[in-house]
Structure formats: C-alpha cells, structure tokens
C-alpha cells in the first residue's frame, strides 16, 4: 500500500494514507455477539515499538528453544469494533534488525542460509480477512512474504483491553500467535543430528505482543 515511513526512532508513526474507507476483503461473520464497548475502538492504530514485541521461537537441537525478535518495523492497523471483518493490518519488518541475544547467531540468520537480508531486506504481513470468534478472540488471515515468497497464514489474536495512558495516548493491547513451516518460504538450511532429528526445527512459532496507539484523525 506504500504507507510506511522509514523513521526508526519515533514511537508513534504516521497513520495509514488509505484511511478507514479503503476497500478491504471481508470475512464471513462468525455469528457471535460482540461486546458493544469494542465499537469505541474503531479507528486507525499503529504499533508502539518500545512497548511491543514482534518475536519468534524455534526448537534448537531438539532439546531447547531459541527466542528472538525484530526491532525495526513499520505498521498500519485499522480496527473496526462493530464489524471486525473490516479490520485490517499491515506490517513490514527489516530482517537485519533480528536479535536473538547472540551476535554470531544473528549474523547467520541474516546471511544467505536464512533471511538473505542483502537480497531480501524486508518481510511483510498483509491481512486479507478478520473474523470475531467470540469474547476477545479474533482470527486474522493474511499473506506472509519472506525471501520473496508469499504464502497464506492465520493469526490467533486476543484482545487484552484498552486504556488512556498518563501521556494522553489511547492504547489497546493484543496478543497474536501462529506457527509456520519455515521451509515453505525457502528457509531450508539445517544440519542433521547424529542421534536423529534436526539442529533447527522447521516449525517456527511467531509471537506478536502488541501495544497499539490510536492515531489522531487527519
């Protein structure tokens, strides 16, 4: 959609130029009652990076879990509390910002064995439908692009609540998760273990701990 800035230090990023009236594919309604209070959340939002985490976890050597996160990304969110099927999200991540706490491992991840950041500096998620499943639970489908490969995924999203913070920002919290097979996006590097199994699991869990800030009306 061409709506992202390149600023890396700002907490609040510009609202989507598309606005809430941009045509968007609607999902079939789940047929469950909505909390009327959700209607007050309808509008444009953006992820507050210092208070959010776009992360992942993957099993390593069959016996432990490695966790990491991406620090540099742009976001544009539109939440419709009355008609969730009109809600949408777009996230563009600079893969070179990956941080697992080990520099050597991070360098390996952005190299040609994995993300190949020189050729594919960004990965992206663009939603295609949203369904309210009940209470504070939503399911968002979308297209995930990594290394130039785009495939559909589904996120499980849980609404955590909203609050007006001491600085005057209206915040809403969401937790999102999904599990993907990294080989479907061309991330096929691995080493086999002598006792069987792989050094790095093909299954990767993506985790979105989101503190979103409402954008002012333009």
From TrEMBL:
Residue ranges of the Lipid/polyisoprenoid-binding YceI-like domain? 44-213
Ranges for the region named Disordered are 1-24
Q: Name one Pfam family in it.
A: YceI
SUPFAM superfamilies named among the record's database cross-references: YceI-like
Biased composition (Polar residues) is annotated at: 1-11
**What protein family does this chain belong to?**
Belongs to the UPF0312 family.
For this protein, the record's PANTHER family field holds:
PROTEIN YCEI
- Mind telling me what this protein is named? YceI family protein
